[in-house]
Design a protein that fits this description.
Length: 86
């Protein structure tokens, strides 16, 4: 949704967006770019397909926008879950 809104605002010829996600667990020690060094981490791999006659520059910019959307930022931030019985 964030990608589409941005492209519309820029009047870019985006015709559609498809996002595919894959979730796995990896050992923290095997993740070179991760801060955590112990235990296992959740890894989400994202594939984004952009439809339309976009330039390579536009496509790269839309990927940057996707990585700054609210959902992406939530998933990459620390998550604190508090459960209670009601």
């Amino acid at each position: 949704m964030t990608i589409a809104l941005y492209a519309r605002r820029q009047q870019w010829p985006l015709e559609g967006v498809t996002v595919r996600l894959q979730h796995s667990k990896v050992h923290a020690i095997d993740c070179a770019e991760c801060e955590t060094r112990e235990g296992r981490l959740d890894r989400i791999e994202s594939e984004i397909s952009l439809g339309g006659s976009l330039s390579e520059t536009q496509r790269r910019r839309l990927l940057e926008i996707a990585e700054r959307c609210p959902v992406h930022r939530t998933l990459t931030s620390e998550i604190n879950i508090r459960s209670r019985l009601v």
